[in-house]
Amino acid sequence: MVNRNLLSSKLAELAFRVNRLRSLGAVSAEELAANRDAFDLASFNLMLAVQICADIAAHLIADERWPAAKSLAEAFTRLEEQSVIAPSVAQALRKATGLRNVVAHGYARVDPAAIHSAATSGLADLEAFSREVASWAALQLP
Predict the structure, then answer these.
(1) Which single residue of 73, 103, 125, 137 could bond 47 by disulfide (Cβ 3.0 to 4.6 Å)?
(2) Which domain holds residue 120?
(3) 49 vs 42: CA distance, rounded Å
């Protein structure tokens, strides 16, 4: 059974990170690239938001005793298979894990355009994940 207190706490943290990203305002990708502090803030909050989603996925998988995921991206596939999240949300989060990895591990210089896109249009995917997980969890009440 899902630990509802933990899930609620993680969803609240996700909402906080999304709001931090939204607080950056409507800056262009060029403005974001020129303002290193804003760029770092956006990158950091995106990385944390995706990590929170991955943590939620891992907790649901473990709590429900579903087959373990072999990667962060596969965790979102598992939630899709179990009808926790929609296929489009799963796809968006699988893609987001790639950006999270680049930011977290510094594999290459992070592209300001990718951060800008994720910090604007990608917020809807994070919010959809949150809504769908919360809705699914409400259905799991005994």
Answers:
(1) 103
(2) 4-139
(3) 10
